[in-house]
Amino acid sequence: MDLFDSQYFKINKRVLMICGLWPYQSILGRRIAFAMLANSIFLFVFTLIAGVISQSQLDIINTEDTIIITFFCLLGLLKCTMFYNQQNKIKNLYECIATDWNKLTDSSEHNILRSFLLDGRKINFITMVFCSSAFMIYSCIDFLLRIFNKESEYQRQHSFPYYFKPMVIYEKLYDWQVALHVTVIVIYSGLAYLSAIVTYISSVKHVCALYEIARHRLQNAIIACDKINHPLQKCIEDISLIPKLIKVIEMHEQAVRGIRIIKKVFGADFFVLTVFCISALTIGTFELNFCRADIHSFIRVLLLMPIIMIYLFYVNYSGEQVIQACDDMYTTAYNIDWYKTSSKTRIFVLMIMRRTLKSEYLTAGTMIMILSIKNFATIIKTAWSFGTLLLTTQKHRKNEDANFVAENTLI
């Protein structure tokens, strides 16, 4: 399709094709790409879980970091699986975008839609660059130092991540294998997350563009209404605005339909993502305060937490944009000079006002969390509270251990 080969959806197409999720690629190509991703992630997760189980002495920080990266990869696989099973819904979503694009004939409306899609592409590009850069810096700091610093076999087996020893191909290249395996699989899992976020951001931008086009049509109708200089009797009988108002209603209906499709595709996915992000940020907050003396662990957490926060921010920021687009449409509808129109035209004005009275919004789950900046702040606040609570219990345990040692010394 021509639209999806253009600059607006180039990132979406390439990322989804790597994961086998692009609805317009061949069935065989989609199955092969998805099987490669699923098998690679599953093997890596098995290696980490077996590595944790095989450890005789577990370090709390390394264990938590290994569990986080395990859940990160599992959730990426879950996201891909959900997307793979929703091929018809995703295809329907992209087809709605293409249909709405082809229906537009006015150049100004095309420019509105084009500007929103370019803005979505910019956000997708920034997200990819930031996440990739942060992870590359993290890999260089954590693995390159270990590769060029000769450590004992005991230190290797008890450092992050816990890696199942029988999976090592050649002992002398242990650090190289771990670094390469972790880097490739985390990038693979990251593409799974990006496949969801780029589709989501582009879809939300498209819906917001439809709202803006509906508002643009309504403003043009208002301008036309202001230019009416007919006598009172002719104004009462004038119905020239009705076709324009019908087009406003049609465009508003397309935007509402787009929001409902986005909810069906991403609702459950983002609920699971939100729960994972709260857990990961909670553990990250705990580790930032607990392991200040361990510079490697501190930098590792400091680099990974912003990736989670940026991803979570754009999920909620897009939901905030939908709310803002609905509010702008509502304000424009209620500012129309309805009293200058005929009685028949007022019926359609009233229909627009009633339709915009109920604001649409995106949710994570079924009406559980409304995606917005307020929800993002609530998640960060909740994670910080849980993290400090964990830190308090750990400090209390340390004080109890210190008191126990002191009592035994006195005895």
TrEMBL record:
What does the UniProt entry say about where the protein is found?
A: Cell membrane
Signal sequence span is none
**Does the keyword Ion transport feature in the UniProt annotation?**
no
Query: Which keywords does this Swiss-Prot/TrEMBL entry list?
Result: Cell membrane, Membrane, Olfaction, Receptor, Sensory transduction, Transducer, Transmembrane, Transmembrane helix
An example Pfam family from this entry, by short name, is: 7tm_6
Question: What GO biological process, any one, is recorded here?
Answer: signal transduction
Membrane spanning stretches: 32-54, 66-84, 123-145, 178-201, 265-286, 298-315, 361-380
Among InterPro entries, the record links this protein to: 7tm6_olfct_rcpt
What is the first-listed, main subcellular location in coarse terms? membrane
A single GO molecular-function term is:
olfactory receptor activity
What family does the Swiss-Prot or TrEMBL record give for this protein?
A: Belongs to the insect chemoreceptor superfamily. Heteromeric odorant receptor channel (TC 1.A.69) family.
What name does UniProt use for this protein?
A: Odorant receptor
Q: What organism is the protein native to? A: Nasonia vitripennis
Task: Read off the lineage from the record.
Answer: Eukaryota, Metazoa, Ecdysozoa, Arthropoda, Hexapoda
